[in-house]
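FORM 12-B: Structure-to-Sequence Request
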């Protein structure tokens, strides 16, 4: 990721504390929802969309700081008592953002519109299950 984009993402996460992931297009545009980024990328020659999670940014900063401390300690000859690099984000935080993104995609497929941005994972699951059950009933009665 370009340094310029990295700084923009860091600033965005600082201002938007509830957002867990953003999506970058190859031209440097940033989106809160993957489907918006994908739609934007359709018109680009490089259609790549890069997801960036808050946890990955924090983890990379932690690793960078830890490596800098290790190098500094190595220069001073002091390598005892250093803390190992501790993970900043849990696996569930990463998978939660991915799960919501997948549910939003499925919701859009079923309802042909995006859900409210405040809709939680459980409510998305419920709405998707309702629509799928409705579709199955419609198919069953249409035979």
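FORM 12-B RESPONSE
SEQUENCE OUT:
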């Amino acid at each position: 990721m370009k340094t310029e984009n990295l700084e923009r993402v860091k600033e965005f996460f600082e201002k938007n504390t509830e957002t867990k992931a953003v999506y970058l297009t190859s031209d440097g545009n940033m989106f809160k929802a993957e489907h918006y980024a994908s739609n934007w990328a359709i018109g680009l020659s490089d259609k790549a969309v890069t997801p960036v999670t808050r946890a990955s940014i924090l983890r990379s900063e932690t690793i960078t700081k830890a490596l800098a401390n290790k190098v500094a300690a190595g220069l001073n000859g002091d390598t005892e008592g250093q803390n190992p690099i501790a993970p900043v984000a849990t696996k569930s935080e990463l998978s939660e953002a991915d799960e919501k993104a997948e549910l939003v995609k499925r919701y859009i497929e079923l309802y042909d519109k995006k859900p409210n941005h405040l809709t939680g994972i459980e409510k998305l699951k419920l709405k998707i299950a309702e629509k799928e059950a409705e579709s199955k009933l419609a198919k069953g009665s249409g035979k």
